Amino acid sequence: MSDEKVGWHTRLLHAGELPQNSAGAINLPIYQSSTFEQREEDTTYDSLRYIRLNNLPNQQVLAAKLAALEGAEAGVVTASGMAAISAAILSCLRAGDHLLAQDVLYGGTRAYFSEDLTALGIEVDFIASDDPRDWGRARKKNTRAIYVETLTNPLLHVTDLAGIASFAREAGLVSIIDNTIATPINFRPLEHGFDLSVHSATKYLNGHNDIVAGAVVGSAQLVERALHKLNHLGGSLDPHACFLLHRGIKSLKLRLDHQSQTALALASFLQEHERVERVFYPGLASHPSHARAKELLGGFSALLSFSLTGGKEGAERMLRRVRLPHGAPSFGGMESLITRPAASSHASLSAEARKRLGIDDGLIRVAVGIEDADDLIADFAQALAG
Given a cut of 70, is residue 184 above it in pLDDT? Predict the structure, then answer.
């Protein structure tokens, strides 16, 4: 089912599904088997039905659903978001090639680019994502790809996505975007000219804080290349994790709409609090990316961050006092989570590097869950009063 005229809830439930499941089951069964009988027409290695080759039923149905949600020709699911990024990047680049990457990225991605890719002989330059002149200056004869995020973590910046996609097309570069925070509900990268979209499906797509998974979607040709690389890297998603992700996707819009409304309410409260210096949430008119977020995105996400008076000490004091959010990394699940990025998602970066990116030691990130907005606000109010 790929009719884009149907509503999001219908699409999330029915897109990419098999016409009829075994024994009439409403939900796709878990095919807990690492291998399937070989058919006579399966004459190549990649056609063997084997779990590492990402071609078993739970993997294939899930990939088809994700592709349909982003209007892509094809998709593949992976064992983690980093496995998705690795497969996408390494399918486009080899030793001697050059990558342009957005300057503000998830800490794990940035470390992978600056440490592991360079060790493989791939050059990486980080660019100011809102300065087209910098893109042109940084581009080299051996530049092959450009990589950005729809919304950056943890400051929720929305870069010049249309400009990046156009620049990539004109320069003959493969454009890759991490669409984890926005999800297909709020942004569909291929409709805006991007070639590949990657996800940490651990987050909103799954929505329950109980698996690690990833995905790559895009054109059939590029996804086939990513799949081939993934099969060598071994980052396949097991059937049970596929089942849980398949289940989670069906409630994506219900969860995300509620979480985003609560995030806006909490951000508005924090913005007016005397102990809060600055709030980063694109749904607020005060956010530098507010106008662009309204133009490009279908919603403002359920992540926010803020800086307190008192710096690191003030942040740690508040983290000890807050009751409802769990002090844990990740985001996108049912429960609200709270962290200090300097000690979690961006801990691998030096203090100087974090400062250049605007991530101070007192910055707090909140991944808003499905708790009632009034309860979360009351909890933050008592935590800030201490």
Answer: yes
